Amino acid sequence: MAVTTRNRVLELSEHTPAQMMVFGLMAISCWAVLFLFVAAPLMDAFFSGFLRSEVVRDGSQVTYRIAENRDDEVVTTGTFSTWALVDPRERKLIDAARAAALHPDEPRPYPAEYIFTPAIALAPLVIVGGFVLAAILTTLLPGIFGYVRQKFEREVLNAMDRIAVAQYGDHTPEEIKAITGDLLAADLRRLHDLADIYAMPYSDLELLQAALRWREAAGLAKIWRTHDAIRFYMREYFTDRYSNAVLGLVYIGAAILIIVIGIRGLKFLPATDPSVVLGALGLEFMLLITYAMVLMYGRTDEDGVDGSREPRHVGAASDADAEHLLRAFLAVPRNPSSQGDNS
Protein backbone atom coordinates (compact mmCIF):
# COMPACT_ATOMS: atom_id res chain seq x y z
CA MET A 1 0.00 0.00 0.00
CA ALA A 2 1.26 3.46 -0.80
CA VAL A 3 2.28 5.52 2.19
CA THR A 4 -0.16 8.34 1.35
CA THR A 5 -3.03 5.88 0.93
CA ARG A 6 -2.17 4.17 4.23
CA ASN A 7 -2.08 7.50 6.01
CA ARG A 8 -5.40 8.52 4.52
CA VAL A 9 -7.02 5.24 5.57
CA LEU A 10 -5.71 5.69 9.10
CA GLU A 11 -7.10 9.22 9.18
CA LEU A 12 -10.52 8.02 8.07
CA SER A 13 -10.45 5.16 10.58
CA GLU A 14 -10.07 7.49 13.56
CA HIS A 15 -12.99 9.61 14.75
CA THR A 16 -12.46 12.71 16.81
CA PRO A 17 -14.30 13.19 20.13
CA ALA A 18 -16.10 16.13 18.56
CA GLN A 19 -17.48 13.89 15.80
CA MET A 20 -18.74 11.30 18.26
CA MET A 21 -20.24 14.00 20.49
CA VAL A 22 -22.05 15.57 17.53
CA PHE A 23 -23.34 12.16 16.46
CA GLY A 24 -24.61 11.46 19.99
CA LEU A 25 -26.38 14.84 20.17
CA MET A 26 -27.95 14.23 16.77
CA ALA A 27 -29.13 10.79 17.89
CA ILE A 28 -30.70 12.25 21.04
CA SER A 29 -32.39 14.96 18.98
CA CYS A 30 -33.71 12.34 16.58
CA TRP A 31 -35.08 10.35 19.53
CA ALA A 32 -37.04 13.38 20.72
CA VAL A 33 -38.32 14.20 17.24
CA LEU A 34 -39.40 10.62 16.55
CA PHE A 35 -41.12 10.33 19.91
CA LEU A 36 -42.97 13.66 19.82
CA PHE A 37 -43.91 13.81 16.15
CA VAL A 38 -44.04 10.17 14.99
CA ALA A 39 -44.34 7.53 17.72
CA ALA A 40 -46.62 9.42 20.13
CA PRO A 41 -49.15 10.56 17.48
CA LEU A 42 -49.23 7.08 15.93
CA MET A 43 -49.83 5.39 19.28
CA ASP A 44 -52.47 8.00 20.14
CA ALA A 45 -54.25 7.29 16.84
CA PHE A 46 -53.93 3.54 17.41
CA PHE A 47 -55.49 3.69 20.87
CA SER A 48 -58.25 6.02 19.69
CA GLY A 49 -59.08 4.04 16.57
CA PHE A 50 -58.52 0.48 17.74
CA LEU A 51 -59.49 0.57 21.42
CA ARG A 52 -61.96 3.47 21.08
CA SER A 53 -60.26 5.13 24.03
CA GLU A 54 -59.07 8.66 24.67
CA VAL A 55 -55.44 9.14 25.63
CA VAL A 56 -54.84 11.41 28.63
CA ARG A 57 -51.24 12.67 28.87
CA ASP A 58 -51.62 16.33 29.74
CA GLY A 59 -50.76 16.13 33.43
CA SER A 60 -54.28 15.26 34.60
CA GLN A 61 -54.82 12.77 37.41
CA VAL A 62 -56.56 9.44 36.84
CA THR A 63 -57.62 6.58 39.05
CA TYR A 64 -56.14 3.21 38.20
CA ARG A 65 -56.68 -0.24 39.70
CA ILE A 66 -53.86 -2.69 39.09
CA ALA A 67 -56.00 -5.71 40.07
CA GLU A 68 -59.54 -6.46 41.20
CA ASN A 69 -58.51 -7.10 44.80
CA ARG A 70 -56.55 -3.82 45.06
CA ASP A 71 -57.71 -0.31 45.86
CA ASP A 72 -57.71 2.45 43.29
CA GLU A 73 -54.52 4.41 42.88
CA VAL A 74 -54.24 8.01 41.76
CA VAL A 75 -51.74 8.41 38.90
CA THR A 76 -50.55 11.67 37.37
CA THR A 77 -50.20 11.50 33.60
CA GLY A 78 -47.47 13.04 31.46
CA THR A 79 -46.16 13.02 27.92
CA PHE A 80 -43.01 11.06 28.79
CA SER A 81 -44.04 9.37 32.04
CA THR A 82 -47.54 7.87 31.97
CA TRP A 83 -50.45 7.74 29.56
CA ALA A 84 -53.96 6.80 30.62
CA LEU A 85 -56.61 5.29 28.35
CA VAL A 86 -60.00 6.64 29.36
CA ASP A 87 -63.49 5.98 28.06
CA PRO A 88 -64.49 9.16 26.15
CA ARG A 89 -68.07 8.98 27.41
CA GLU A 90 -67.00 8.84 31.06
CA ARG A 91 -64.62 11.73 30.54
CA LYS A 92 -67.41 13.85 29.09
CA LEU A 93 -69.65 13.05 32.06
CA ILE A 94 -66.89 13.96 34.53
CA ASP A 95 -66.14 17.19 32.67
CA ALA A 96 -69.85 18.07 32.74
CA ALA A 97 -70.00 17.33 36.46
CA ARG A 98 -66.97 19.54 37.02
CA ALA A 99 -68.61 22.39 35.13
CA ALA A 100 -71.81 22.08 37.17
CA ALA A 101 -70.05 21.80 40.54
CA LEU A 102 -69.73 24.64 42.98
CA HIS A 103 -65.96 24.32 42.83
CA PRO A 104 -65.14 23.46 39.19
CA ASP A 105 -61.39 23.67 39.83
CA GLU A 106 -61.54 20.84 42.33
CA PRO A 107 -59.77 17.87 40.72
CA ARG A 108 -61.82 14.80 40.01
CA PRO A 109 -59.69 12.02 38.52
CA TYR A 110 -60.78 10.15 35.42
CA PRO A 111 -61.12 6.36 35.76
CA ALA A 112 -58.42 4.81 33.57
CA GLU A 113 -59.00 1.53 31.73
CA TYR A 114 -55.33 1.05 30.87
CA ILE A 115 -52.04 2.60 31.91
CA PHE A 116 -49.30 2.98 29.32
CA THR A 117 -45.66 3.93 29.97
CA PRO A 118 -44.21 5.26 26.68
CA ALA A 119 -40.64 5.41 27.98
CA ILE A 120 -40.69 1.59 28.23
CA ALA A 121 -42.98 0.62 25.37
CA LEU A 122 -41.60 2.94 22.70
CA ALA A 123 -37.95 3.00 23.77
CA PRO A 124 -36.65 0.26 21.38
CA LEU A 125 -38.42 1.74 18.36
CA VAL A 126 -37.41 5.31 19.12
CA ILE A 127 -33.79 4.56 20.07
CA VAL A 128 -33.04 2.37 17.04
CA GLY A 129 -34.92 4.72 14.73
CA GLY A 130 -33.01 7.69 16.15
CA PHE A 131 -29.65 6.04 15.55
CA VAL A 132 -30.64 5.16 11.98
CA LEU A 133 -31.87 8.69 11.27
CA ALA A 134 -28.71 10.20 12.78
CA ALA A 135 -26.57 7.84 10.69
CA ILE A 136 -28.37 8.92 7.50
CA LEU A 137 -27.95 12.59 8.37
CA THR A 138 -24.22 12.17 9.09
CA THR A 139 -23.89 10.43 5.75
CA LEU A 140 -24.95 13.61 4.00
CA LEU A 141 -23.03 16.15 6.10
CA PRO A 142 -19.27 16.80 5.78
CA GLY A 143 -16.49 17.43 8.27
CA ILE A 144 -17.27 17.22 11.95
CA PHE A 145 -20.88 16.28 11.16
CA GLY A 146 -19.94 13.44 8.78
CA TYR A 147 -19.45 10.56 11.24
CA VAL A 148 -20.88 7.82 9.01
CA ARG A 149 -19.78 9.52 5.80
CA GLN A 150 -16.17 9.10 6.92
CA LYS A 151 -16.71 5.36 7.33
CA PHE A 152 -18.09 5.09 3.79
CA GLU A 153 -15.14 6.99 2.33
CA ARG A 154 -12.72 4.77 4.25
CA GLU A 155 -14.17 1.57 2.76
CA VAL A 156 -14.19 3.05 -0.74
CA LEU A 157 -10.50 3.90 -0.37
CA ASN A 158 -9.77 0.42 0.98
CA ALA A 159 -11.46 -1.17 -2.03
CA MET A 160 -9.53 1.03 -4.43
CA ASP A 161 -6.30 0.19 -2.65
CA ARG A 162 -6.94 -3.57 -2.98
CA ILE A 163 -7.37 -3.17 -6.72
CA ALA A 164 -4.22 -1.05 -7.02
CA VAL A 165 -2.18 -3.55 -4.99
CA ALA A 166 -3.35 -6.40 -7.24
CA GLN A 167 -2.49 -4.43 -10.38
CA TYR A 168 0.68 -2.54 -9.46
CA GLY A 169 1.90 -3.79 -6.11
CA ASP A 170 3.53 -0.77 -4.46
CA HIS A 171 1.38 1.86 -6.17
CA THR A 172 1.19 5.64 -6.26
CA PRO A 173 -1.76 8.02 -5.74
CA GLU A 174 -1.72 8.76 -9.47
CA GLU A 175 -2.35 5.09 -10.24
CA ILE A 176 -5.31 5.05 -7.87
CA LYS A 177 -6.65 8.16 -9.60
CA ALA A 178 -6.26 6.42 -12.95
CA ILE A 179 -8.24 3.38 -11.72
CA THR A 180 -10.86 5.72 -10.28
CA GLY A 181 -11.20 7.51 -13.61
CA ASP A 182 -11.56 4.20 -15.49
CA LEU A 183 -14.33 3.04 -13.12
CA LEU A 184 -16.23 6.33 -13.22
CA ALA A 185 -16.16 6.47 -17.02
CA ALA A 186 -16.86 2.76 -17.60
CA ASP A 187 -20.09 1.70 -19.26
CA LEU A 188 -21.65 -1.74 -18.91
CA ARG A 189 -19.37 -3.45 -21.42
CA ARG A 190 -16.24 -1.78 -20.09
CA LEU A 191 -17.20 -2.67 -16.51
CA HIS A 192 -17.35 -6.35 -17.47
CA ASP A 193 -13.91 -6.04 -19.06
CA LEU A 194 -12.55 -4.37 -15.92
CA ALA A 195 -13.98 -7.16 -13.78
CA ASP A 196 -11.90 -9.63 -15.78
CA ILE A 197 -8.82 -7.39 -15.63
CA TYR A 198 -9.09 -6.84 -11.88
CA ALA A 199 -10.06 -10.51 -11.26
CA MET A 200 -13.04 -9.59 -9.07
CA PRO A 201 -16.78 -10.31 -9.29
CA TYR A 202 -18.76 -7.97 -11.50
CA SER A 203 -21.31 -7.29 -8.75
CA ASP A 204 -18.55 -6.04 -6.43
CA LEU A 205 -17.14 -3.80 -9.12
CA GLU A 206 -20.59 -2.43 -9.92
CA LEU A 207 -21.16 -1.53 -6.26
CA LEU A 208 -17.72 0.10 -6.09
CA GLN A 209 -18.49 2.18 -9.18
CA ALA A 210 -21.76 3.36 -7.62
CA ALA A 211 -19.95 4.23 -4.37
CA LEU A 212 -17.31 6.19 -6.29
CA ARG A 213 -20.03 8.15 -8.08
CA TRP A 214 -21.55 8.91 -4.67
CA ARG A 215 -18.18 10.13 -3.40
CA GLU A 216 -17.64 12.37 -6.41
CA ALA A 217 -21.20 13.76 -6.46
CA ALA A 218 -22.35 16.95 -4.77
CA GLY A 219 -25.60 18.56 -3.72
CA LEU A 220 -28.82 16.77 -4.58
CA ALA A 221 -26.93 14.20 -6.65
CA LYS A 222 -25.05 13.07 -3.54
CA ILE A 223 -28.31 12.72 -1.61
CA TRP A 224 -29.78 10.72 -4.50
CA ARG A 225 -26.80 8.34 -4.54
CA THR A 226 -26.61 7.86 -0.77
CA HIS A 227 -28.33 4.49 -1.01
CA ASP A 228 -25.49 3.25 -3.26
CA ALA A 229 -22.97 4.16 -0.58
CA ILE A 230 -25.06 2.39 2.07
CA ARG A 231 -25.24 -0.76 -0.07
CA PHE A 232 -21.50 -0.72 -0.61
CA TYR A 233 -20.67 -0.19 3.08
CA MET A 234 -23.12 -2.83 4.26
CA ARG A 235 -21.73 -5.41 1.86
CA GLU A 236 -18.05 -4.61 2.14
CA TYR A 237 -17.80 -4.04 5.87
CA PHE A 238 -20.87 -4.21 8.10
CA THR A 239 -22.35 -7.57 7.05
CA ASP A 240 -18.96 -9.29 7.08
CA ARG A 241 -18.04 -8.03 10.52
CA TYR A 242 -21.32 -7.78 12.43
CA SER A 243 -23.66 -10.40 10.92
CA ASN A 244 -22.98 -12.90 13.71
CA ALA A 245 -23.38 -10.20 16.35
CA VAL A 246 -26.73 -9.13 14.89
CA LEU A 247 -27.91 -12.75 14.80
CA GLY A 248 -26.88 -13.14 18.43
CA LEU A 249 -28.85 -10.02 19.36
CA VAL A 250 -31.89 -11.44 17.60
CA TYR A 251 -31.71 -14.54 19.80
CA ILE A 252 -31.25 -12.37 22.89
CA GLY A 253 -34.32 -10.35 21.92
CA ALA A 254 -36.30 -13.54 21.40
CA ALA A 255 -35.22 -14.80 24.83
CA ILE A 256 -36.32 -11.52 26.44
CA LEU A 257 -39.65 -11.70 24.65
CA ILE A 258 -40.22 -15.29 25.79
CA ILE A 259 -39.48 -14.35 29.41
CA VAL A 260 -41.79 -11.34 29.29
CA ILE A 261 -44.62 -13.32 27.70
CA GLY A 262 -44.11 -16.09 30.28
CA ILE A 263 -44.23 -13.63 33.17
CA ARG A 264 -47.34 -12.09 31.67
CA GLY A 265 -48.93 -15.54 31.43
CA LEU A 266 -48.23 -16.11 35.12
CA LYS A 267 -50.13 -12.89 35.89
CA PHE A 268 -47.05 -11.20 37.37
CA LEU A 269 -47.61 -8.37 34.89
CA PRO A 270 -51.05 -6.72 34.99
CA ALA A 271 -53.18 -6.93 31.87
CA THR A 272 -54.06 -3.24 32.25
CA ASP A 273 -50.40 -2.16 31.83
CA PRO A 274 -49.01 -3.63 28.57
CA SER A 275 -45.92 -1.41 28.47
CA VAL A 276 -43.32 -4.13 29.16
CA VAL A 277 -44.89 -6.52 26.66
CA LEU A 278 -45.02 -3.82 23.97
CA GLY A 279 -41.41 -2.89 24.72
CA ALA A 280 -40.24 -6.50 24.29
CA LEU A 281 -42.22 -6.82 21.05
CA GLY A 282 -40.72 -3.57 19.76
CA LEU A 283 -37.20 -4.72 20.65
CA GLU A 284 -37.54 -8.03 18.83
CA PHE A 285 -39.18 -6.29 15.87
CA MET A 286 -36.27 -3.86 15.42
CA LEU A 287 -33.69 -6.64 15.81
CA LEU A 288 -35.43 -8.74 13.17
CA ILE A 289 -35.58 -5.76 10.83
CA THR A 290 -31.84 -5.20 11.37
CA TYR A 291 -31.07 -8.84 10.65
CA ALA A 292 -33.26 -8.70 7.53
CA MET A 293 -31.21 -5.74 6.30
CA VAL A 294 -28.00 -7.68 6.93
CA LEU A 295 -29.34 -10.56 4.82
CA MET A 296 -30.55 -8.24 2.06
CA TYR A 297 -27.24 -6.40 1.72
CA GLY A 298 -24.95 -9.36 2.48
CA ARG A 299 -23.13 -11.57 0.06
CA THR A 300 -24.77 -14.59 -1.52
CA ASP A 301 -23.21 -17.96 -2.28
CA GLU A 302 -22.84 -16.94 -5.93
CA ASP A 303 -20.64 -13.96 -5.06
CA GLY A 304 -17.73 -16.12 -3.95
CA VAL A 305 -16.64 -19.44 -2.58
CA ASP A 306 -17.90 -20.01 0.98
CA GLY A 307 -18.84 -16.35 1.26
CA SER A 308 -15.26 -15.13 0.81
CA ARG A 309 -14.24 -12.09 -1.20
CA GLU A 310 -12.24 -14.16 -3.65
CA PRO A 311 -13.82 -14.52 -7.08
CA ARG A 312 -15.11 -17.86 -8.17
CA HIS A 313 -12.79 -19.13 -10.87
CA VAL A 314 -14.39 -20.56 -13.96
CA GLY A 315 -11.60 -23.04 -14.48
CA ALA A 316 -11.99 -24.53 -11.02
CA ALA A 317 -15.73 -24.90 -11.53
CA SER A 318 -15.17 -26.57 -14.92
CA ASP A 319 -12.69 -29.05 -13.41
CA ALA A 320 -15.16 -29.95 -10.67
CA ASP A 321 -17.94 -30.49 -13.22
CA ALA A 322 -15.66 -32.66 -15.33
CA GLU A 323 -14.76 -34.76 -12.29
CA HIS A 324 -18.44 -35.29 -11.47
CA LEU A 325 -19.16 -36.37 -15.06
CA LEU A 326 -16.22 -38.80 -15.00
CA ARG A 327 -17.43 -40.37 -11.76
CA ALA A 328 -20.94 -40.71 -13.16
CA PHE A 329 -19.56 -42.42 -16.28
CA LEU A 330 -17.49 -44.89 -14.24
CA ALA A 331 -20.51 -45.70 -12.07
CA VAL A 332 -22.59 -46.79 -15.09
CA PRO A 333 -22.53 -50.64 -15.47
CA ARG A 334 -20.79 -51.76 -18.64
CA ASN A 335 -22.40 -54.29 -21.03
CA PRO A 336 -20.28 -57.49 -21.14
CA SER A 337 -21.38 -58.34 -24.69
CA SER A 338 -20.16 -55.01 -25.95
CA GLN A 339 -16.80 -55.66 -24.35
CA GLY A 340 -16.53 -59.03 -26.13
CA ASP A 341 -17.37 -57.52 -29.49
CA ASN A 342 -14.78 -54.85 -29.03
CA SER A 343 -12.13 -57.40 -28.16
Briefly say what this structure is.
The protein is α+β, with helices and mostly antiparallel strands. The chain is 68% helix and 6% strand.
Your description of this structure?
Helices cover 68% and strands 6% of the residues. By secondary structure, it is α+β, with helices and mostly antiparallel strands. It has 2 domains: 3-30 and 125-301, no CATH class; 32-117, no CATH class. Strands 1-4-5-2-3 form a 5-stranded mixed sheet. Helix 5 (123-140) crosses helix 6 (147-168), helix 6 crosses helix 9 and helix 9 crosses helix 11 (226-265). The longest helix has 40 residues, at 226-265. It is elongated, with a radius of gyration of 31 Å.
Proportion of β residues? Answer: 5-15%
Assign a percent range to the helix content.
55-70%
The span between the termini is 65 Å
| Uncertain ranges | 305-319, 325-330, 336-343
Compute the CA-based radius of gyration.
31 Å
Order of helices and strands: HHEEEEHEHHHHHHHHHHH
Number of helices: 14
Largest sheet: 5 strands, mixed
Strand order of the largest sheet: 1-4-5-2-3
**Count of individual beta strands:** 5
